[in-house]
Amino acid sequence: MAEDRRSLFVTGLKNAHAMENQALSIIKPQISRIENYPQVARRLEEHYRETEVQMKRLEDILASLDEDNSTLKDWMLSATGSMAAMGHSMADDEILKNSFANFAFEHFEIAAYNALLVMAEMGGFEASIAALRHNLSEEEGMAGWLSDNLREVTAEFVARREAGETAKV
């Protein structure tokens, strides 16, 4: 049973690493395209840096278990994240679609870290708990920021559209 729990935990860690890699591939193009929503760009830049550190924390946990991340999973999820970002870039309401998708993705990450914490506790991987909680806290912070700012971003989008200004990004 202990080996099953370890295997499940390692798989979850590799999935989380790939998930964070996907997050980077989603955030980076958004940052490069934002012109009219500086508050969003600033927060995305901050979260991009947080995500890089989150990946390092996951790599450290994996290394402590004599494991490493899955290059294939990282590549596949990075590619799907890039495609999702490209899809939104064609929309007239790109900033809103990105906001909705980012909000949903943050909650996906929150769920993943909550599950990893349960696996860490059940598997006796106490040394990983602080790092996983730190990652969870940062994801919750980003989700909260997105929630708190959706009204402002939406209102700014609508006002720009009504004024005939570029509202997209």
Automatic annotation (TrEMBL):
InterPro entries linked: DUF892_YciF-like (IPR010287), Ferritin-like (IPR012347), Ferritin-like_SF (IPR009078), YciF (IPR047114)
Coiled-coil regions listed: 41-68
Cross-referenced SUPFAM superfamilies, in alphabetical order? Answer: Ferritin-like
Gene3D superfamilies in the record, alphabetically? 1.20.1260.10
What keywords are annotated for this sequence in UniProt? Coiled coil
Q: Which domain of life is it from?
A: Bacteria
Q: What is this protein called?
A: Ferritin-like domain-containing protein
Could you tell me which species this protein originates from? Answer: Rhizobium rhizophilum
